[in-house]
C-alpha cells in the first residue's frame, strides 16, 4: 500500500492513525465492488488484535457501511461474509465496541443474514452474534424480540459444527430467566441439542452441555424431560456421568455435575441415586480441592452447596468425603502471605477471587451444617471458624456478609453451639451491627439467626436484650417483606418466652397494641402464627395474664373471636384456643371468657370438633376455667354445666385419643369436685397454665 | 491354624473357577503393568501370616475372629499372601463388614510389611473412625463403620499416599510417605466379627478405574509436557535422524532419499550400499536364500565367513525354502513347470512373474516382500523403477552348489575371528544388545524375555503378521492344492536332499570347531523333520515354512551387514523404543508406581 507509506511522512503520529483508518473506511465506498471487497479484506487484516484500530474504525463510521454492505442483496456472498468477519473482529474488542455495534442495530441485521443460504456467511454472522451476545453489555432480550429467530437457529443446528458451537453458546448465554428456558424448551431445544453431546468436536460438546445446565436450572419441566432423553441409546444422565469421569477436562466435569445437580434439585433424579451419591457429589467435592483453579473451586462449592441443601443424607456423605470440611478452610487463605510478596500478578488474581472464595465456603458450610448436629460440631471445630464468620459478617462485600450470616444461621440451629462457641465469640455483636443497616436479603438471614440467639437457653439473650434489640425487631414487623415481618415477630415471641414482666411490658409498649392487632390480621399465616405465639408467651404466668388482659383484654378477646370465626388453618385455631386457655388461667382474666357467651359457645363447638388437636386445646381451656381451687369456681362450674359442657366431657372420656381422655377425665372429675383428682389436675394445669411457645428457626 | 484346610476346600468348585477367571481378568485390566511372575498380586489372605485367633474360610477371603476379645491384647490380624507390587501404580482392595460383633474395636490395618504386625503398619479403625500410623494413638480421620459397610483401601504408589473409602465414597488422604512393600491386612478384636475381602473377585463399590484414569491422564500430561530444553532445533534434528535411519536401516531407499531431501538432512550410508542391502533383504524375504547368500558373499566378502552361526542359520533357512519350493536352487528345475508359479504362497499377486526365465524380472519378484514389509509403501514403485540389473544374482542361482563349498571353506577361517559362539545366533544378538542397552543394570536384564524388542521386529512384526494372513488367505485356494515338496520336481527334490547332506556336514564341522551347539542341532532337526511328513505345510513343524519366518533371519543378516560397515546394527528408533520399554520395566523394579500409567504401548498407534 503505497498510500500507507506516504501518510506518516506528512502528519503527526496521532492523526496518522486516524488517517490510515480513514483510508480503510473510504475504500468501503469505492464504486468498484472488487475494490470494496479488497478493502474489506485489508480492513480485516488490519483490525485483528488491534483494539485501537477497532475503536478508530468504529468512530469513523465503518460499522453502518459494513452493515449496509452486508445487508445489500447485490453484494457478492464473499463480500457479505467478509463484512460479517470484520464486524465479528470489531466485536472482539472492548465492551465499548460491543455497545457501539449494538447501537448500530447489528443484531437484527445479523439475524436477518442468517436467512441467507450461504453457509460461510451464516457461520460468520453466527460467530459475530456469539461474540456480541456473550458480552455482559448486550441485552439478552434482543434474541427473543423476533419470535422467528429461535426456531430458525434451531434449524441451523444441523448445518455444521461451527453453527452448532456458536448457536449453543448463544443459547447458554441468553437463557437467563424461566421465560427464556420455556421459549427454548418449547422450540425443541432438548431434542435438537441432545445429539450434540456426543459430537466429535469438544467445543460443541462443551457448549451443548452448558446449554443444558442453564436450561435445567430450577426448571422442573426441563429436568423431567431431560431424564428420559436418550442419546445414541444411552440415558442422558449416563452421558453426563461419563462426562464427569476424572480424565475429562475439568470444565466438562464441572458443567456435567451442574446439570445433574439441577436435575436432582428439580426432583427429576432422586437424591439417593448412585449417579448423585457416587458420581456428582464426589465430583463436586473434587472441584473444591486445592489443585483446582480458584474459579472452579468457587463454582464447585456453590454447586455442591445447592445440591445437598435439602438432603441431610447428602450432607452427611459430603461431610466425610475427602476431608471436605478441612479443605474448605483453605478458601480463607487468599491472598496468601506468600503471593503478596513474590508475585504481584498472582496477588491481583487472588484478591479478585478472595471474596468469591470466602462466600462460596460460607455457603457450603451453611449447607453442610443445616441439619446434622455432628457436622455442625465438626465445622465449628475447624481452625478459626467462628473468627472467620465473625469477620465475614462485617466484610465490605454484601455477598460475603450474606453467606457468612447464612452460615451462622445454619450453625445457630445447634443448641450446643448456641451455648458454647456462639457465646464465646460474642457473635451477637457483629450480628446486631449487621441488622442496623443491610439489604433485605441479609436482614432476613440475620434476623433469622437473631431469633435463634434469643432462645431462652441461649446465653447471648441477655446481652442482646440490653443492646436495645426490641425497637429494632418491632421495626422489622412493619417491613414490607413478609419474611422480615415473620422474623421480627418470631424473635419477639422467643424473647417473650418465660421473660420477666419488665421485658414483656417493654415488648408491648414498643410494638404498640395497634401494630400487634395489625399483625393479627396479617395476610401471611406465618406472621399470624408467630404473633399468636407472642400473645401466648405474653399471657403466661397468672400475674402477667391479668395485667395484660386488664389493659388490652377487650381487643384481645375481639381478635380471638375474629380468628376463631375466620377461615384459618387448624394450627392457627389451635394456637388461638391455647391463648384462650392461657387467659382462662388468669385470676381476673377468666371473667372475660365467662362473661362472653359467644366465646363459650365457640369453645363448646371446638370441643366437639373433628380435629383432636382443637378438641384438646378447647378442653384445656375449660379445665382451666373450672379449676376449683380458685374463687368462684363453683359458679363457673354451674354455668358451664348449664351450657352442656359436662355432657361433652363425658362423651370425650369415651374418645379414642388417650391424651384427650385424660384431659376430659380431669375436667369431668373436677366438675364433680372429686378431691382426689384435684391434685393431679393442679399439677397438669400448672404446666398448662404457663403454656408458651418457643421454636428454633429452621 | 485349624482353619487352614478350610481355605482350600472349594478349589474344585466350578463357581470358584469362574470367579477365578473373573478375578484374573479384572486384575489384568486394573494392573496391566504388573508382571505376576516377578511380583504376584494379593489374591487372598495368607493362612501362614496370621494370628491364631483368626479363622479363614471361603477361599481364604472371609476372616472371622475366634479369640476372647477381652482387651486390646486379644486383637489379631491377617495379611494377604503378597505385598502390593509397585507396578500397580494404584492399588485397591475392599473389605465388607459382614458382622461387627458385640464389642467395639474393629480395625482395618491394611498394610503390614513384616509379620511384626505393629511396626510400619497403617490402619483405619471402625470404632472411632481414627487413623493409626505405626502407633497406638490415632488421629481423627473419617466416620465410624459397622455391619454392612464396605471399607476400601487405595494405595497410590505414585505419590506414596493412601486413602480409604466407605461405601464407595473417598474419605480423603489418610497417610503420606508410605514405605514400599505393604501388605493388605485386616485386624479384628471382637468375638463374632466377620469380614469378607475383595481383592478383585467382585466389582468394587468404589469406582477405582475412574480414579486411575485421572492419574493416567496426569502422567500422560506430564510426559507430553516434559520440557525438552531450549535447543528445539536439535530436538527436531534428532527426530528426523530417527526417521531417516529407520528408513535406511530397512532399506527403504527411495523414501529415505525423499525424506532426506525434504528435511535437508544427510544420509550416512552410501546409496548403493542401501540398495544392496535392500536387495539381499528382498531375496531373503522372497525365500530365495541361496541367492541372498551368494549376493552377500559377493557384496560383502568375508562377512559370512566371520559369522558362521549366521551362515548356518541362512543355510538352514535355505533348506526350508527348498522344501517350500521357493529357493532358486530348486526353482530353476521347475521353470518349465507351470505349477511352480503358484508355489510361493507369500507373493500371490506377483507369482506369475516368478516363473519367467527373464532374469531382469527378478526385481519384480523381489518386490513382493515389500508388500509384506508394508511399513512405507510409497517407496515400492520408485525402487522398482530404479532397481539396477540383478543379473549377477540371477545367474548365480544356477551355480548354487558352489555357495555351499564357499561357506564350508570359509567357516574354517572364521575360527580365529569368532572364538566363542556357544549360543544360537538369535540369543547372541539379543544378549549383546542387552549389554549395550542396559550397561548400568547388567543384572537381571540379560535373561529378560522382552529382549526380542531389540531386534527391530517389535510391532513391525505384528503388522507383517496381519498382512501375511490376509495375503495367505487370498492364495489359499489356488496354492494349497498345488503345494508340493520342492515344487513337485524330482530333480529339485534330489538337489534338496543333497543340500541337506551338505548342511549336515556343515553342522558337524561347526561342532568340531566350536563344540556342540544345541540350537543348531534343534534347527537342523526341525528343518529335516519337514521331510518326514507327506504334507509338510500341515505338520507340527510346518510353521517353519511360513514366509513370516524369514523375518528373523532377514533382520539378523541385515544387522550383520550394517555392523560390518561400522553402522549401527539397530535403527536408533527401535533402540529408543526398546530402551523406553525397558526403562518402564525398570521403574517397576525400583518401585516407581507411575510406570503403570506410562506404558510404551499407550503411545504407539
UniProtKB/TrEMBL annotation, chain A:
It holds the Pfam family Arm. The keyword Nucleus applies. Keywords: Cytoplasm, Nucleus, Repeat. One of its GO terms (cellular component) is nucleus. GO terms for biological process: proteasome-mediated ubiquitin-dependent protein catabolic process. ARM repeats lie at residues 61-97, 511-553. Its main location: cytoplasm. It is found in: Cytoplasm; Nucleus. This is Armadillo repeat-containing protein 8. It comes from Oncorhynchus tshawytscha.
TrEMBL record, chain B:
Residues 273-330 form the CTLH domain. SMART domains: CRA, CTLH, SPRY. It comes from the Eukaryota. Gene3D superfamilies: 2.60.120.920. Belongs to the RANBP9/10 family. Residues 23-204 form the B30.2/SPRY domain. This is Ran-binding protein 10. Residues 336-434 are annotated as: Disordered. InterPro entries: B30.2/SPRY, B30.2/SPRY_sf, ConA-like_dom_sf, CRA_dom, CTLH/CRA, CTLH_C, LisH, SPRY_dom. Residues 391-414 have a biased composition (Low complexity). The lineage of its organism: Eukaryota, Metazoa, Chordata, Craniata, Vertebrata. Pfam families: CTLH, SPRY. SUPFAM superfamilies: Concanavalin A-like lectins/glucanases. The gene is RANBP10.
Amino acid at each position: 500500500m503505497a498510500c500507507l507509506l506516504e501518510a506518516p511522512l506528512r502528519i503527526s503520529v496521532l492523526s496518522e492513525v486516524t488517517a490510515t483508518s480513514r483510508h480503510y473506511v473510504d475504500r468501503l465506498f469505492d464504486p468498484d465492488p472488487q475494490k470494496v471487497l479488497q478493502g474489506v479484506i485489508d480492513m480485516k487484516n488490519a483490525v485483528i488484535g488491534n483494539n485501537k484500530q477497532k475503536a478508530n474504525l468504529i468512530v469513523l463510521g465503518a460499522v453502518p457501511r459494513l452493515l449496509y454492505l452486508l445487508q445489500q442483496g447485490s453484494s457478492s456472498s464473499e463480500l457479505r461474509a467478509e463484512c460479517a468477519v470484520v464486524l465479528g473482529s470489531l466485536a472482539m474488542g472492548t465492551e465499548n465496541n460491543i455497545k457501539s455495534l449494538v447501537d448500530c442495530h447489528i443484531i437484527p441485521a445479523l439475524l436477518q443474514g442468517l436467512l441467507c443460504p450461504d453457509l460461510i456467511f451464516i457461520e460468520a454472522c453466527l460467530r459475530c452474534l456469539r461474540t456480541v451476545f456473550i458480552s455482559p453489555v448486550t441485552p439478552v432480550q434482543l434474541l427473543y424480540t423476533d419470535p422467528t429467530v429461535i426456531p430458525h437457529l434451531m434449524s441451523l443446528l444441523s448445518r455444521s459444527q461451527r453453527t452448532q458451537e456458536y448457536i449453543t453458546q448463544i443459547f447458554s448465554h441468553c437463557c437467563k430467566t424461566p421465560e427464556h428456558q420455556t421459549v427454548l424448551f418449547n422450540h425443541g431445544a432438548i431434542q435438537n441439542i441432545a445429539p450434540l453431546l456426543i459430537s466429535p468436536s469438544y467445543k460443541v460438546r462443551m457448549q451443548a452441555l452448558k446449554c443444558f445446565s442453564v436450561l435445567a436450572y430450577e426448571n422442573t419441566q426441563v429436568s423431567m424431560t431431560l431424564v428420559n432423553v436418550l442419546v445414541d441409546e444411552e440415558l442422558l444422565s449416563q452421558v453426563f456421568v461419563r462426562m464427569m469421569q476424572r480424565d475429562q477436562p475439568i470444565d466438562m466435569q464441572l458443567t456435567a455435575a451442574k446439570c445433574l445437580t439441577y436435575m436432582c434439585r428439580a426432583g427429576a433424579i432422586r437424591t439417593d441415586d448412585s449417579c448423585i451419591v457416587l458420581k456428582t457429589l464426589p465430583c463436586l467435592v473434587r472441584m473444591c480441592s486445592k489443585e483446582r483453579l480458584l474459579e472452579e473451586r468457587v463454582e464447585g462449592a456453590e454447586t455442591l452447596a445447592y445440591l445437598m441443601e435439602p438432603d441431610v443424607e447428602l450432607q452427611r456423605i459430603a461431610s466425610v468425603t475427602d476431608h471436605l470440611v478441612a479443605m474448605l478452610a483453605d478458601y480463607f487463605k487468599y491472598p496468601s502471605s506468600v503471593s503478596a510478596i513474590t508475585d504481584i500478578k498472582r496477588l491481583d488474581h487472588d484478591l479478585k477471587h478472595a471474596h468469591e472464595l470466602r462466600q462460596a465456603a460460607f455457603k457450603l458450610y451453611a449447607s453442610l451444617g443445616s441439619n446434622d448436629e455432628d457436622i455442625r460440631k465438626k465445622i465449628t471445630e475447624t481452625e478459626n471458624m467462628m473468627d472467620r464468620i465473625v469477620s465475614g459478617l462485617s466484610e465490605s462485600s454484601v455477598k460475603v456478609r450474606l453467606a457468612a450470616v447464612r452460615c451462622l444461621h445454619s450453625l445457630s440451629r445447634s443448641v450446643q453451639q448456641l451455648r458454647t462457641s456462639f457465646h464465646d465469640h460474642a457473635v451477637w455483636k457483629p450480628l446486631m451491627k449487621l441488622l442496623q443497616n443491610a439489604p433485605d436479603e441479609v436482614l432476613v438471614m440475620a434476623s433469622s439467626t437473631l431469633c435463634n440467639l434469643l432462645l431462652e437457653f441461649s446465653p447471648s439473650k441477655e446481652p442482646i436484650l440490653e443492646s436495645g434489640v426490641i425497637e429494632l425487631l418491632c421495626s422489622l414487623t412493619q417491613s414490607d417483606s413478609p419474611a422480615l415481618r415473620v422474623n421480627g415477630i418470631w424473635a419477639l415471641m422467643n424473647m417473650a418466652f418465660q421473660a420477666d414482666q419488665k421485658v414483656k411490658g417493654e415488648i408491648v409498649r414498643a410494638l404498640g397494641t395497634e401494630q400487634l392487632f395489625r399483625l393479627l390480621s396479617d395476610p401471611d399465616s406465618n406472621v399470624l402464627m408467630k404473633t399468636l405465639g407472642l400473645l401466648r408467651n405474653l399471657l403466661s404466668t397468672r400475674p402477667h395474664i391479668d395485667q395484660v388482659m386488664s389493659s388490652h383484654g377487650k381487643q384481645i378477646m375481639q381478635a380471638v373471636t375474629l380468628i376463631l370465626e375466620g377461615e384459618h388453618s387448624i394450627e392457627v385455631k389451635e394456637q388461638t384456643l391455647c391463648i384462650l386457655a392461657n387467659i382462662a388461667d388468669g385470676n381476673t382474666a377468666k371473667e372475660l371468657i365467662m362473661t362472653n357467651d359467644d366465646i363459650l359457645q365457640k369453645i363448646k363447638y371446638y370441643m366437639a370438633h373433628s380435629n383432636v388437636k382443637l378438641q384438646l386445646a378447647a378442653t384445656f381451656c375449660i379445665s382451666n376455667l373450672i379449676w376449683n381451687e380458685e374463687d368462684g369456681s363453683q359458679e363457673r362450674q354451674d354455668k358451664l354445666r348449664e351450657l352442656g359442657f359436662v355432657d361433652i366431657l363425658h362423651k370425650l372420656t369415651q374418645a379414642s385419643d388417650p391424651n384427650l381422655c385424660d384431659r376430659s377425665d380431669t375436667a369431668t372429675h373436677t366438675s364433680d369436685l372429686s378431691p382426689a383428682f384435684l391434685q393431679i389436675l393442679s399439677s397438669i394445669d400448672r404446666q398448662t397454665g404457663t403454656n408458651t411457645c418457643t421454636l428454633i428457626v429452621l | 491354624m485349624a482353619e487352614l484346610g478350610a481355605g482350600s476346600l472349594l478349589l474344585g468348585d466350578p463357581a470358584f473357577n469362574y470367579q477365578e477367571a473373573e478375578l484374573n481378568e479384572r486384575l489384568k485390566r486394573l494392573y496391566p503393568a504388573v508382571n505376576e511372575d516377578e511380583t504376584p498380586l494379593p489374591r487372598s489372605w495368607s493362612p501362614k501370616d496370621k494370628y491364631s485367633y483368626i479363622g479363614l474360610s471361603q477361599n481364604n477371603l472371609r476372616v472371622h475372629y475366634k479369640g476372647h476379645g477381652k482387651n486390646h491384647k486379644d486383637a489379631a490380624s491377617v495379611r494377604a499372601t503378597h505385598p502390593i507390587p509397585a507396578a500397580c501404580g494404584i492399588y485397591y482392595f475392599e473389605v465388607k463388614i459382614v458382622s461387627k460383633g458385640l464389642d467395639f474395636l474393629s480395625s482395618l490395618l491394611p498394610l503390614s510389611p513384616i509379620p511384626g504386625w505393629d511396626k510400619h503398619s497403617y490402619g483405619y479403625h471402625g470404632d472411632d473412625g481414627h487413623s493409626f500410623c505405626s502407633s497406638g494413638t490415632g488421629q481423627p480421620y473419617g466416620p465410624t463403620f459397622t455391619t454392612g459397610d464396605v471399607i476400601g483401601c487405595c494405595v497410590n504408589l505414585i505419590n506414596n499416599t493412601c486413602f480409604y473409602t466407605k461405601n464407595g465414597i473417598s474419605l480423603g488422604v489418610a497417610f503420606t510417605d508410605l514405605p514400599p512393600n505393604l501388605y493388605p491386612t485386616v485386624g479384628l478384636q471382637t468375638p463374632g466379627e466377620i469380614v469378607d475381602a475383595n481383592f478383585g473377585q467382585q466389582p468394587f463399590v468404589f469406582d477405582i478405574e475412574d480414579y486411575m484414569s485421572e492419574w493416567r491422564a496426569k502422567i500422560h500430561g506430564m510426559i507430553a509436557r516434559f520440557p525438552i530444553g531450549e535447543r528445539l532445533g536439535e530436538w527436531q534434528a534428532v527426530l528426523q535422524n530417527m526417521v531417516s535411519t529407520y528408513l535406511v536401516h530397512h532399506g527403504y531407499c527411495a523414501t529415505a532419499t525423499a525424506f532426506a531431501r525434504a528435511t535437508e538432512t544427510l544420509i550416512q550410508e552410501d546409496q548403493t550400499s542401501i540398495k544392496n542391502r535392500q536387495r539381499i533383504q528382498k531375496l531373503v524375504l522372497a525365500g530365495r536364500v541361496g541367492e541372498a547368500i551368494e549376493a552377500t558373499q559377493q557384496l560383502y566378502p568375508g562377512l559370512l565367513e566371520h559369522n558362521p552361526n549366521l551362515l548356518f542359520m541362512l543355510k538352514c533357512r535355505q533348506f526350508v525354502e527348498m522344501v517350500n519350493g521357493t529357493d532358486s536352487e530348486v526353482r530353476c528345475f521347475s521353470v518349465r513347470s507351470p505349477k511352480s508359479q503358484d508355489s510361493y504362497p507369500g507373493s500371490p499377486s506377483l507369482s506369475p512373474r516368478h516363473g519367467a526365465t527373464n532374469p531382469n524380472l527378478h526385481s519384480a519378484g523381489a518386490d513382493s516382500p515389500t508388500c509384506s514389509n508394508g511399513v512405507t509403501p510409497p517407496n515400492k514403485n520408485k525402487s522398482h523403477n530404479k532397481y539396477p540389473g540383478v543379473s549377477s544374482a540371477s545367474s548365480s542361482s544356477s551355480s548354487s552348489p558352489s555357495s555351499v563349498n564357499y561357506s564350508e571353506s570359509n567357516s574354517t577361517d572364521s575360527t580365529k575371528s569368532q572364538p566363542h559362539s556357544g549360543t544360537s545366533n538369535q540369543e547372541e544378538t539379543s544378549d549383546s544388545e542387552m549389554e549395550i542397552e542396559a550397561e548400568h543394570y547388567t543384572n537381571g536384564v540379560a535373561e529378560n524375555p522382552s529382549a526380542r524388542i531389540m531386534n527391530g521386529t517389535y510391532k513391525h512384526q505384528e503388522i507383517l503378521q496381519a498382512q501375511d494372513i490376509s495375503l495367505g488367505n487370498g492364495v489359499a485356494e489356488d496354492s494349497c492344492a498345488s503345494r508340493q515338496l520342492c515344487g513337485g520336481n524330482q530333480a529339485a527334490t534330489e538337489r534338496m536332499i543333497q543340500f541337506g547332506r551338505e548342511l549336515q556336514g556343515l553342522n558337524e564341522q561347526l561342532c568340531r570347531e566350536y563344540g556342540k551347539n544345541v540350537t543348531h542341532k534343534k534347527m537342523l532337526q526341525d528343518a529335516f523333520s519337514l521331510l518326514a511328513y507327506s504334507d509338510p505345510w500341515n505338520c507340527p513343524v510346518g510353521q517353519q515354512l511360513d514366509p513370516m519366518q524369514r523375518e528373523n533371519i532377514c533382520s539378523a543378516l541385515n544387522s550383520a551387514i550394517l555392523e560390518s560397515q561400522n553402522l549401527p546394527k539397530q535403527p536408533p528408533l527401535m533402540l529408543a523404543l526398546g530402551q523406553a520399554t525397558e526403562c518402564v520395566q525398570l521403574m517397576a523394579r525400583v518401585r516407581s508406581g507411575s510406570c503403570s500409567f506410562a506404558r510404551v504401548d499407550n503411545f504407539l498407534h
